[in-house]
Amino acid sequence: MPTLLISSRIRREFGDPLQAAAGDGLRLFVSDPESPLTSQQLAEVDIALLSLDVIDQSTKTVLTPQMRFFCDQLRAASGLQWLHVPTAGVDRPIFQEMLRRGVRLTNSSGANAEAVAHTAVMGVMVLARGALKWIHAQREHRWTPLRGADAPGDLAGQTAIVVGYGPIGRSIARSLEALGLTVHKLRHSPQPGDAGQGIHGYARLPALAGSAQWLVMACPLTEATRRLVNASVLAAMPRGSFVVNVGRGGVLDEQALLDALASGQIAGAHLDVFEQEPLASDSPFWDLPNVLVSPHNAGSTAQYGDRCVHMFLDNLRRWVAGRPLVQEVARDRTLKSSP
Per the database record, which ranges form the D-isomer specific 2-hydroxyacid dehydrogenase catalytic domain (predicted)? Predict the structure, then answer.
């Protein structure tokens, strides 16, 4: 009989579906700081569901008490075999720690893909239409139409590079193509026939950068993508180009972007993710008039958490039946260092 570690909210709202998915052969242990599990109970945990309500406001490095407690229980669960997480990225230190320990890890890639893609396209539209200037003018009660030399150019006919071609990147690319842009899509491992569809490996980024007015990052942080977008890539783009990052902060060299924004090489940016989160209150990004900052919130929707649980339920049925798990993270997704 497998034993599952969950939050009190998941026990309350999904207890019956969990039991049904396991054929009633499942023990539920609740992570509760006010009623901690014993070391013996933790040793009996086979599976853990880290739900969105546990992560709550935690970042990779600043954890809420609830998240810190859950992480401590994962470390103490010596028999843990499988952990499901409510994110697509697996660069959080606790996820990396579990991978290195040999725990099987499944993610929730796709659960919020549409929301993240919508946010990225929002960033493109805000920057393309000069909306940040309207927002600043509204705060100052100034009537300043963007006309003449200040009028924005047409999006149709421009070129974008979307870095990362998973569920999020595919949705972004479809939306941008519908707006009339030519889109180059980059992913870790190109497949036969990809080039004919405008799909390339990450190594093509420097060569393609010179043709693109838009660079949209929607990839995970791996050893292959760390600082992939650096000073040379930004310098290769046409002057006055734009950057949108809804992937991971470590993919982008932030100082190189600040320098490019200061010189006008990059005309504006929408940044949802940063190397250090929360973003420090003294970060220059907060005050730049041509930068939209959002607090790693691109994928947030009211339905996101429940979709992650339903993904877990599908995998739980597979686990009980001895079938392969879907969206299992490869062991080589460990990072050399977890910031």
Answer: 71-329
Domain that holds residue 253: 113-293
* Catalytic site includes residue 129: no
β-strand partners of 27: 3
- Please, which pLDDT band fits residue 339 given cuts at 50, 70 and 90? very low
Q: Is beta strand 104-106 parallel, antiparallel or unpaired with respect to 3-7?
A: unpaired
1 pLDDT band, cuts 50/70/90, is: confident
142 is catalytic: no
Same domain for 124 and 263, yes or no, is yes
Residue 338 has a pLDDT of 41
- Please identify which of the residues 118, 170, 200, 296 carries the catalytic annotation: 296
Instruction: Summarize the chain as % helix, strand, coil (round to 5).
Output: 40, 15, 45
Residue 336 is predicted with a pLDDT of: 67
Number of domains making up the chain: 2
Instruction: Judge residue 193's burial from the number of C-beta atoms within 10 Å of its C-beta, 0-12 exposed, 13-18 middle, 19 or more buried.
Output: exposed
Instruction: Clarify whether residues 105 and 153 are in a common domain.
Output: no
pTM value surpassing 0.85: yes
For this structure, is 275 an active site residue? no
Assess whether 271 and 127 both reside in one domain: yes
Q: What is the pLDDT of residue 75?
A: 98
DSSP labels for 57-103? T--SSS--HHHHHHHHHHHH-TT--EEE-SSS---SHHHHHHHHHT-
Active-site option among 118, 187, 248, 270: 248
CA–CA gap between residue 7 and residue 31 (Å, rounded): 5
